[in-house]
Design goal:
This protein is α+β, with helices and mostly antiparallel strands and 460 residues long. The chain is built from eleven helices and 23 strands. Strands 4, 9, 10, 11, 12, 13, 14, 15 and 18 form a nine-stranded mixed beta sheet that branches. Strands 1-20-19-21-22-23 form a six-stranded mixed beta sheet, sandwiched between helices. A three-stranded antiparallel beta sheet has the order 5-7-6. The chain is elongated and about 85 Å long. Bound molecules: zinc ion. Zinc ion binds next to loops. The site of zinc ion has 8 residues, from loops.
């Protein structure tokens, strides 16, 4: 079981009269994550992830992985360093390269600290002995750090210079087969974002520096979002204004149904998908042998999810100014248990109830999902304040009322909800219901919430 007294949790204490030097724009998630000691700023635009936040990121990785495996994905790892030579071949070093981290090794050979891996993965396949059409489709993915020398990094983990990304690359025999891979992987994306229960939208997007024929972005709706999205309430159309060049060039009527019911919202981009065709496979010579044994160029797609950005942006959308709110499946712990204060008259009897409760909770959600706040030198009120700010889905207080002879009660606090006074059996029942709901989200059988996200999210 996790013990609060042992947790490395370097909260930020700012003296009341301190002059805070504002070096970058703060967002709600960044402010809370920093103050609560979940994330520490490193050098400008980079972040150090502390244990509580790392748990959420690890859970996000697990969830993304299970969806990628379900979409036929196979996990690989490619080096962070990609030879610049490969990017010269695809022409991607010809444009604006100011966002790339470039370096040379001791022999003078130039590398990129990869912002994305199309060249690297395609060159890997090109150097592989002939691939047969029987091995296709091939859907390879990895989860690792990416680098972008942002001119203005801001909003903490939402736009950092180093970030964690899941990138998948699909390889198919034809444009039609590539479109099938695209449909399979975007369906997995849809499932992932529904599991998070954060309002999202899938929009048509510009292909930009990635190239290719078709592209979609997934956005969380938020006022701090840096993208303007058009949404038609008459049909299913949704698009990023970037598709039209700029905000001022965007149409006032829906490009699909001509309806005037086109609204604008701000979005945080959390994922991006592309049908690439042969943009990378052709110049890098990545081929397969078709049914007649002739080499043909592989047809590609690529699919990214910004893992650290998903976590930060979900917090941005769900949290209040004072308290973090997590998607159920990403919360660092499911349940926080707060026992009596040392030296209080109820300490001994309340501790007996507390320990019995801990045993029962371990049976329901497993020791790993429990945070026992046994910092008994602190008052219950102080520990409860911490628990609320950290946004645990469920916090249980075993205080004086737990020891009263008639109708002993525990306090149950739900994230964003009211305090309830319940007996032990009722508390255990609510914890079991929470675990059940999580399981349903993972399995995709949660009816009510699926309906809710169908309303806010949609697929083409
Ligand atoms: Zn429309």
């Amino acid at each position: 079981m996790n013990k609060a007294s042992r947790l490395f949790w370097p909260t930020l204490v700012t003296p009341k009269n301190a002059v805070v030097k504002q070096t970058e724009q703060l967002s709600r998630s960044q402010k809370l994550l920093t103050e609560l000691g979940l994330v520490k700023p490193g050098s400008n635009g980079t972040y150090q992830i502390m244990p509580i936040a790392q748990r959420a990121i690890d859970k996000c990785i697990q969830l993304v992985q299970s969806n990628m495996q379900a979409a036929g994905g196979q996990k690989i790892s490619l080096p962070v360093l990609t030879p610049a030579q490969l990017w010269k071949k695809t022409g991607r070093l010809e444009g604006d390269i100011s966002e790339f981290y470039m370096l040379r090794d001791r022999s003078g050979k130039q590398f990129l600290m990869s912002p994305t891996h199309e060249e690297a993965v395609t060159a890997m396949l090109a150097s592989t002995a002939p691939i047969s059409y029987r091995q296709l489709p091939l859907r390879l993915y990895q989860i690792g750090p990416k680098f972008r020398d942002e001119l203005k990094s801001r909003f903490g983990l939402m736009r950092a210079k180093e970030f964690l990304m899941k990138d998948m690359y699909s390889f198919d025999v034809s444009a039609e087969a590539a479109a099938e891979s695209y449909a399979t992987v975007t369906a997995a994306y849809e499932r992932f974002f529904r599991q998070l229960e954060v309002p999202f939208v899938q929009v048509e997007a510009a292909t930009g520096m990635m190239g290719g024929s078709q592209s979609h972005e997934y956005h969380f709706i938020s006022p701090v979002g840096e993208d303007t999205l058009l949404q038609c309430s008459n049909c299913s159309y949704a698009g990023n204004v970037e598709v039209f060049g700029s905000d001022t060039d965007a149409p006032s009527a829906c490009p699909k149904c001509q309806s005037a019911q086109l609204s604008r919202v701000r979005g945080v981009e959390v994922a991006h998908t592309f049908l690439l065709g042969d943009k990378y496979s052709k110049p890098l010579g990545a081929t397969f042998l078709n049914t007649t044994g002739k080499p043909k160029t592989l047809i590609m797609g690529c699919f990214g999810i910004g893992i650290t950005r998903v976590v930060a942006a979900a917090l941005e959308v769900l949290s209040t100014e004072q308290e973090l709110r997590w998607p159920k499946l990403l919360a660092p712990y499911d349940v926080c248990i707060i026992g009596p204060k040392a030296g209080s008259k109820e300490q001994a009897p309340a501790e007996r109830i507390e320990h019995e409760l801990l045993q029962q909770l371990m049976q329901i959600c497993g020791a790993e999902q429990l945070l026992h706040d046994e910092r008994k030198e602190l008052t219950i009120g102080k520990r409860l304040l911490d628990a609320k700010r950290l946004g645990h889905p469920l916090t249980i207080v075993v205080g004086a009322k737990a020891t009263q002879a008639e109708a002993p009660k525990l306090e149950l606090h739900t994230s964003g909800g009211e305090k309830q006074e319940l007996d032990v059996a009722q508390v255990l029942q609510l914890v079991a219901t929470h675990e059940q709901h999580k399981q349903q989200l993972v399995e995709g059988t949660e009816q009510t919430d699926t309906k809710r996200s169908q309303r806010v999210g949609h697929v083409h």
